[in-house]
Amino acid sequence: MATRTQGTIIKEIQFKLEDTGSRRFPLERIRTWINEGLTDIARRAECLLTEDTSTSVVAGTQQYTAPADVVRIYSVVYVPTGQTQRYD
Length: 88
Hints:
By secondary structure, the chain is mainly alpha-helical. It has helices at about 5-20, 25-45. The protein contains 2 helices and no strands.
């Protein structure tokens, strides 16, 4: 399968839209659709899987922000400091 750049994909989309008589869409909207599609593919294929990542937690804090490049969190496991007991 040939690799295509976002610019090439945008040109193909614009060409197809012009053939159908559709109005022109702003480039930002087309880029957003492409990125949403790529994120959906990555989520379904799980091709960007990172095995283990750890984050320090603070007592009493229940919500944490995931890194910006996270597509899906498969599971969360808590291991208290100095212990081996795992809590899913």
